[in-house]
Design a protein that fits this description.
By secondary structure, this protein is mostly helical.
Amino acid sequence: MNLSLCSKAGLAATILTLSSLLLPLSGTAAEGDFSAGAMVWSENCGRCHNIRDPLDLRDDDWKTAIFHMRLRAGLTGQEARDVLAFLVASNKPARKSIIAAKASTSSGSGKLDGQAIYNKTCIACHGGNGKGLLPGVPDFTDPKGRLSQNDEVLIKHITEGFQTPGSPMAMPAKGGNADLMAGDVRAVLAYIRKQFGN
């Protein structure tokens, strides 16, 4: 097929435009942020996708979906990378060495206290008031709610992730923050109990 100069230029412009939209998700751009991605997911994507479980698709499927949805939802490159970071982290299982929180003598990463961990990792889904920002996220202020369970159960849920019955989306292992150590999990649970418990 012989394309005219005009149609070749139009095709080239279309390819260039699409390339410029997709390239910011490549390795040369800034890394995505899990917490920011969770917020974009809940405030933007959830309106149409009903807070779909990240396990619905594999990581490579999510990359393809984000390329498409970036255009449809009008996401910036950074927002798209943030959502992708959230989805990919939510798909990762906990490392077995960290699941053994009770047996670990680690005092944590040494970088953040419980409040800082909550504000960096947990707040995206659980909110600043502990009542939950997404459908199915437990209300920490409910006296008969999640915090009525013992520490061992809650540490297991935080460390391994947990699917609340009736919730459309599971909490990812360690809230999606793979860097949390056993001591960090204990510190954030202590903060949650102090801040929101009755």
